[in-house]
Fold this sequence. Notes:
The complex is a heterodimer of chains A (122) and B (289). Chain A is of the alpha/beta class and 122 residues long. Chain A has helices at residues 50-60, 73-82, 94-102; strands at residues 2-7, 25-30, 36-40, 65-68, 85-88, 107-108. A 6-stranded mixed beta sheet of chain A has the order 3-2-1-4-5-6, with helices on both faces. In chain A, helix 1 (50-60) runs parallel beside helix 2. Helix content of chain B is 36%, strand content 28%. Chain B is elongated, with a radius of gyration of 22 Å. Chains A and B meet through helix 1 and helix 2 of A and strand 4 of B.
Amino acid sequence: MKIIITASSDKIDQPFNPRFGRAEYFILMDSETKEWEAFVNPAADSRGGAGPLAVQFIAKKGADVVISGRFGPSAYTALEAAGIKAYFASDGSVNQVLQQFLDGQLEVAGEASGPGMHGRGR
Amino acid sequence: MRIAVASGKGGTGKTTVATTLALSLAAQGQTLSFLDCDVEAPNAHIFLQPEFQHTQEVVRLIPQVEAQRCTGCGRCAEVCQYHAIVVLGQKTLVFSELCHGCGSCTLECPEKAIREIPEKLGILEAGHTPQQIQFARGLLDVGEPMAVPVIHQLKKWQTSQIEEIEIWDSPPGTSCPVVESIRGAGFLLLVTEPTPFGLHDLKLAAQLGAELEIPAGVVINRDGIGDTRVEEFCQESAIPILMRIPLERQIGEGIAQGKSLIEIRPEYRERFQEMFAQIGALCAAEDWQ
């Protein structure tokens, strides 16, 4: 299973970033092989529509699961369409968040968290 | 002559100045048109009392993807500046609230799988005021985030002959709707108040005007309050101060009752006519340069 965790840096011992579309990095973890790789989020500096763009990016990376602090309505709709399961985490390093997920401690994001930015998220 | 009235800061008296200018020129026998470009909260009609005779819907064209034809090639997503269309495997999703209706995805789709569906954004209304000022305004629908297309279509909308003089009342701020409102104007009339808040936003609005290469002048409203820094700024930036309207209880009370400035203080009619002549001279000097 491929898991994406939103992060502020490309290190797994650093804090995770609770923003989805605007997080600086996406860290991709493979739960079977335990290998990980960091990707710069192409949507982080986007003028608008960061959520859908970020989903498109992680979908291409083959993500099955994404963990972040909140998901906007556009991002959530796109995640559903892409069949990527979203989970909420609150804090911790990327590594700790991954462990929380593997231990079944994280809550499924059942719906978008609050209103969206409608392309004005910066 | 197209004069855009802007301010940066809200509540400085843009609409008071724009409508008084229109009424003063109409009283002089000039024919003119007035556009209320503040489509999120238009209110110039309160002072000018037009009777609307024409209405038109403003629409935005939103892409609709025909799933059978779409191959998921991703070209539409590549060309969309706003990420309003994304391709997720074989699914292509449109986020209409992000779409600016530019049509790039439709043009670029190699399979011709995209059709454009009109979506209503607001309306335009036009008519004449009792003084025969040709009046038009835009009204953005509640909940719609994009004012620019409504302003754009308002400025292109032609319901009667083109008048020699046009007054454009723009929204506050310096963001996209203001840029769209003042674009193409021959002169920018900046209404401010002599306070730190007025100055802060006047600087931004003046910068925007300079960026668009529109000559500008300032009206200081509520003159006598605050400090002298607005004046100093105008001097340093060589922006002429064209009028001062003092803070007076009588004016404030009259405006609060929905009266126009020249109803409250008739001497402003001539003062605004003089200011218009001065604007004409400034524009002529600009052209000469």
